[in-house]
Amino acid sequence: MLLAVLVAALVAGEPPAGEGSEAGRAWTRCQITELGTMAGCEVVFETPPGLGLGERALKKSKLIKTRPRIENGLPVAGGEVTFEYMFKLTDLPAPPPPGPLSLEEALTCYGIWSARSRDAFAGELERFHRDRFTDAVRERGAASGLNSRAVNKRMKAALQTGAPATPIPERCNDLRY
After folding, report:
1. Residues 109, 101: contact at Cβ < 8 Å?
2. What are the counts of helices (DSSP H) followed by strands (DSSP E) for the chain?
3. For the chain, first and last CA: distance in Å?
């Protein structure tokens, strides 16, 4: 069984995923033909479901060839083998891009980056993000039907809530906002 797993990983052209780098697994079960090829392969289990890992593992399992059983000096069909495939995060399809930030998200990001840009150790990165989210807040405020005075009032309130030590949400680092 362990040999089958290693063979499956090597035939698939992927090293077995190391600890922490693994994103999913799939197990297939196949019958060995008299030619040593795999037949009747099926997906036994896949995790996480819905990413097509089972189908990918099935395609790879059908490529494997091994020595068939020998009876009376002749190759015969028989035997069953289970393969385990480990997929790394880079093997999986990319997640869809995030949608546009809401006005509230843009205000939160603006408050955080503005607070960080006032820090004595602030650099270009903090000022760049502050300016990006200033533009994003003004854009989303206008799209929401707010006048510039109302947008400025909301931005001033966001400045009061942002603190330099506030953890930065992932969306506030996304350059696609």
Report:
1. yes
2. 5, 5
3. 48
Question: Low-confidence residues of the chain, pLDDT below 70?
Answer: 1-22, 89-98, 120-122, 162-166, 173-177
Domain 2-91 sits in CATH at: 3.30.1150
User: Residues 51, 40, 90, CA angle at the centre, nearest 5°?
Assistant: 25
Q: Where are the domains of the chain?
A: 2-91, 103-172
The CA angle 83-87-89, to the nearest 5 degrees, is 175
Whole-angstrom Cα distance, residue 43 to residue 27?
6
Which candidate, 46, 50, 49, 79, places its Cα nearest to that of 64? 79
Q: What is the value of pTM for the model shown?
A: 0.44
DSSP 95-121: PPPP-PPPHHHHHHHHHHHHHHHTSTT
Separation of alpha carbons 49 and 83, rounded Å: 17
Which residue type sits at 115?
A
Hey, which bits of 49-173 come out as E strands?
69-71, 74-76, 80-88
